Amino acid sequence: MKGGIKAMVALVLGLGVFGCESQSPEPFRYRMTVEVDTSQGPVSGSAVRQLRFSKTMNGGNLAHVTGEAVALDLPGGKTLFALLVGTNGNADHASQAMWHLFRELDQDVIELWPEVPQINNPRIPTPVPMLVTFADQSVSASVKRLDPEDFEPVLGSGVVLKRITIARTTAPVTKEIGDLLDWLSTHPEPSLSPGHDQRDFSLPATLKHGAFRQGTTK
Sign of torsion, CA 8 10 13 19? Predict the structure, then answer.
């Protein structure tokens, strides 16, 4: 009897070890593309990001992103940025949230806007990234948040968000945003309003450099 119990314990432990040694997903890259209609015609921009994975203490997989925001030049000198954080501020939008979409949806191209993908994951309340622009691109604290349903008050008449998509790709990770925002720093990322009051919860105070670039250098 004792031998049987020992054998059962060994089997359970063996299964536990086997489960812990299961492989994490292979790293992969995806391209986020933003399309906008303007009074001068449609424009689009994209950025390629890479996801890699590590094991969590409970045996799950945690996604990490390397890449940058989508930067889209618009008529009139403005630039629209689709950030690595979500529209609700969630910091793992470009990593964990995008991975869950690819894992649950068997599609070559996944549309995030205007059609919202239907999945069973409550951790992704909205798949749309936070969209911003700057009153003065050389001044980080001049950042302005954009309403995806109403660009015109900030970006001008006729500017309308048409589509946001993600798709797997083998293209190189994009490394261009440092040329547009020369104030961007690397980890640890400060806020866009350095030295702000601790009671300041405005967008420049709460938004960090990591919303524009992660895992890369200038």
Answer: negative
Encode pLDDT of 30-63 as tens digits: 999 999 999 999 999 999 999 999 888 887 888 9
Residues 197 and 90: their CA atoms lie apart, in Å, by 22
Looking at residue 115, what DSSP letter applies?
S
Using CB atoms within 10 A of its CB, is residue 111 exposed (0-12), middle (13-18) or buried (19+)? middle
Burial 64-76 (b: 16+ CB within 10 A, else e): bbbbbbbbbebee
d(CA 6, CA 48): 52
Query: Strand 213-214's sheet: what is its strand order?
Result: 109-113, 160-169, 28-38, 41-55, 61-68, 213-214
Contact predicate 42/26, CB 8 Å: no
The CA distance from 200 to 178, in Å, is: 27
pTM (predicted TM-score): 0.85
**Residues 6 or more apart whose Cβ sits within 8 Å of residue 2:** none
